[in-house]
Amino acid sequence: MQEAFALTREPNWVLHHEGYSLLSESALESRFALANGFLGMRAARAISRGPTWLSWLGYIKWASWPRCYVAGLFDRPNTVPPVPALVPVADWSRVRILLNGDPLLLSDGEMIAGMRSLDLRRAVLLSELTDRRPSGITGTGCEMRLVSMADRALGLQLLRFSLDRDGIDVRLEANFGMSGLGMEPLRLEPDLGAWHAEGTGESVAMAGAATLRAGGELLLPERPFSLRWVWSWRSVAGQQIEFDRIVAVARGDERDADPGPAAAMALARGRALGWRGVLAAHEAAWGQRWRAADVVVEGDDAVQRALRFAVYHLTSAANPDDETVSVGARALTGDAYFGHVFWDTEIYLLPFYTAVWPEAARAMLTYRFRTLPAARAKAARMGFKGALYAWESADTGEETTPERVMGPDGAMIDILTGQMELHISADVAYAVWQYWRATGDDEFFVAAGAEILLETARFWASRAVMEADGKRHIRHVIGPDEYHEDVDDNAFTNVMGRWNIARALEAIEALRARWPDRAVTLFEKLSLSDDEITDWRDAAERIVTGLDPATGIYEQFAGYDQREPLDLSQYADRKVPIDVVIGRERTQRSQVVKQADVVALMALLPDEFPGAMAEANFRHYEPRTAHGSSLSAGMHALVAARLGDADMALRFLHHAAAADLELDPNSAGGIRIAGLGGVWQAVVLGFAGLDISGETIGIAPRLPPEWRSVSFSVRWRGRPVQVRITAATVRVIVPDGQPMDVRIAGGIRKVDAGAPLEVSLKQATASP
Ligand code: BGC
To answer: Which of ligand 1's atoms lies nearest the C-alpha of 337?
Structure first.
């Protein structure tokens, strides 16, 4: 078993943490979390752990948050106000060890050595512990855990340990932590348990098998309770104890579903392979993912580590085989945001999936297609046509944004995003369009994508109302900058909405030209008339954008320029968000921007910022932005990189990278996955200048001088393309198929399959 614990020495492939601190434990558990898009598990310690709290000025705070999640398993727990939330399932990694009847708890022993490592390449969590009991008995052990990328229903845990003396009565209990589950048991059998969520009726079954060997001899367990194994023996000094546990999980989506048989079948698959087979298949599946998605940066170890960390969590979050779920704001790594899906997915994550894992992108967009009825219902409820997606979405696509939350001072604050943050509909349309452009997946476009584009465009046309000035306005909204609520004509919202309509008109042309039968059935289904299409054209022409033709600057929303200017450099040392420092009211009255807003628009639609406009807008908004969201820094890095400001871009990139890579207490509720998507985008779409939205794939690099090279692969129109960029050259390999045209720094080159093309950047910029 020892080989399973082999720890990589390559620093860019491993996260390492020594010791144990109550203060950072919760953030560490998020950062080192394991997931495979179906199962998620925080990296809480398995051994010698009890639930741990920390006294906190008058109340109690969780210090350790051992949680396991199943994607798509939602309930309506007792939260106020009530919203669906991802419900935790039984923690299948718990192990209790008793020595002469005393439980081994870290709180009363002496930790001589303790570490946790997350091996990013193999996606396994490794822990080591040497602990001396008050009695003087010393135990040394290591644990390995994974959730399988090869068979997403499976989890695996291995444990190996020894004691330093003979004759101790040892008892090891392997159980499924079931307290705090929030679900009702349906059945509890020796090797299988099933529970259901009372509110939604969704259910889960978990099955397990465990073995233990002492000095190579198999010991038989007692089975006092469902999913619990208890072994007792007398210790021999130095004797190796080896324990393995395979678990299998299945979700039931219907009220009367019994997921038990599916879990039992998955367990049988795992047992047939044995732990070595489960581990080997998992490593092979991750090897494949890394070959597709790794980004190698030579010359900047900090960025290299941040990229590996980002790609690790992005890969862990997705499941191409499940079209009923999408990735929540904290993926499957924590409770914050209740597992809800935001624009984060389409705008911050999808570019990664579309470029390197289109099957995962397609599954997430299909989730949006499946939730289109709920988006239609939301638009209708608000008196509009078409589809308005939920700002926060769970399993059904209904709006799940809490209407009120408690503010830092304990007062309740109304949350208006669920009614006013409309740009989500254009964000979904944007991701659909980018996916179609980059993959050429016509089947998805015809079956689902076109309908999303049309229904979201229809919403914008009905929401953008003609006024006396002959323009169409979109009033009472919240843009990405959530510091400013209930504003009129937010540039991001309006320009994205207008773009959405324009793409829908293109989609109509494409359907009519290439799939006329589908065009007829779809237009009939949607009762889409020529008059309505004419109105969309009118809307696209008349929607106000806030662009000042004299300066080339978009006003973020009507009246923004009249708000109080605030010199953010005066607050550079603050440790908390600006709205906490100066208060909500003053923040709202000022020009301070929470996160990339017009800057995000530049990142998404660079063509809307021709010539000097890009620079002008960035220099205008960057100093006004307080980065009160982890989504902000990556977008700024991307835009600064495209503008050729490598210093500023690197500064933002390091800022974005630090958010979860360092033990920021804000990651206690889960990793901020959108920020990680931002890290990937800043490097690949920013510094490397990848563009997969056109008729040819494009690369326009602007590397920082200290980087020697950047290498990555993407999939474009179904074909792999490998890219390596240095300060002076771009090298492209297309492994097979027809020759491919590639736009390198503006010039078109033909790449023959199997024959690497190396282009000098000086020549490329010189060519037409
Ligand atoms: C940000 C939103 C984001 C949400 C979830 C908020 O703080 O302002 O843009 O969608 O967090 O990550």
So the answer is: 5
